[in-house]
Automatic annotation (TrEMBL):
Pfam families per the UniProt record, alphabetical: Wzy_C (PF04932)
Taxon lineage: unclassified sequences, metagenomes, ecological metagenomes
First-listed, main subcellular location of the protein, grouped into a coarse class: membrane
Record GO cellular component, one term: membrane
Protein name per its UniProtKB record: O-antigen ligase-related domain-containing protein
Length: 288
């Protein structure tokens, strides 16, 4: 499925570049997409109304599964995508207990896994609080939460400066250049990463965290659109013409690149060994 979606996206991009649709066609496609998105909850509510419990009863039952503490931990199977049962409320309650015991500075960075044990009343066990705010309060207390909020405010101000957002004013169609559209997409990537991290331990997954942080950093460091390079904006690629190294300079750079690649391989091995040991340990526990 992923390969098909990627192929469809590449084909659509090539077609759009070779035969770009007219503005009227793009507007119609946008309206159709928004209408389809708005119809999804209506169709979902209509389908729920024909269930045995009705729309209200089904939603109430699913909310109880999501927030209840007397539920079993869902197994990591494909069917989990359609399940609403969750034990997050248990982890969040433990994180709140840890924070109450250490309100200012928290229990220590990454200490939730051990600090929660004294408050464990249910068999569910997790290494993370499954929520950035809960994990931050438990590990770093009010100090850590204040630092995180300060970083969030600084990033929002930088995004406002980059995208030239003004109160009560929406950019017209002529102002939506290709770069502005791309920067907006990167901003939304960072926003989705932050929102998802509020409900899960997404920021602990390196690939996801690096993507979200890279997008956030790129938008914040871009500088205002249309500003010259002296004001902090990145110069366009066509304005950059670096000299191609040769001779000893090229040899030194090749040696540096090889050394960096070797360091990356060593780092991967250093990370892989503890992971393999943990996998073997969990396998031994299952066999016992």
């Amino acid at each position: 499925m992923l390969i098909l979606l990627m192929a469809a996206g590449i084909a659509a991009q090539i077609l759009a570049e070779r035969r770009p649709p007219m503005e009227r066609t793009r507007r119609r496609l946008g309206i159709a997409a928004l209408a389809t998105l708005a119809a999804v909850p209506v169709v979902a509510l209509g389908a729920l109304s024909f269930t045995e419990r009705g729309a209200g009863g089904t939603i109430s039952d699913r909310v109880a599964d999501l927030t209840g503490r007397d539920v079993t931990t869902p197994e990591n199977r494909p069917s989990r995508l359609t399940e609403t049962a969750s034990v997050r409320s248990i982890y969040w309650e433990r994180a709140a207990d840890v924070w109450k015991a250490h309100p200012v500075g928290g229990a220590g960075a990454g200490a939730f896994a051990e600090a929660q044990l004294r408050f464990r009343m249910k068999p569910a066990q997790g290494k993370h609080a499954h929520g950035y705010m809960h994990q931050t309060l438990a590990d770093l207390g009010l100090v850590g939460l204040a630092v995180s909020l300060a970083a969030l405010v600084a990033w929002l101000l930088a995004v406002r400066n980059t995208l030239a957002l003004r109160r009560g004013r929406i950019a017209s169609g002529r102002e939506w250049s290709a770069e502005r559209t791309a920067l907006t997409a990167l901003t939304l990537v960072a926003v989705v990463f932050g929102l998802h991290s509020a409900l899960d331990w997404t920021w602990f997954v390196p690939a996801v965290a690096i993507t979200g942080l890279f997008a956030a950093g790129w938008v914040a460091g871009r500088g205002p659109l249309g500003a010259p390079a002296t004001q902090g904006a990145v110069p366009p690629l066509e304005a950059v013409d670096p000299a191609r190294p040769s001779g000893r300079k090229l040899q030194r750079r090749v040696a540096g690149a090889l050394a960096l690649a070797a360091l990356a391989v060593l780092a991967v091995l250093a990370v892989a060994q503890p992971w393999r040991a943990q996998q073997k340990g969990e396998e031994a526990l299952r066999l016992s």
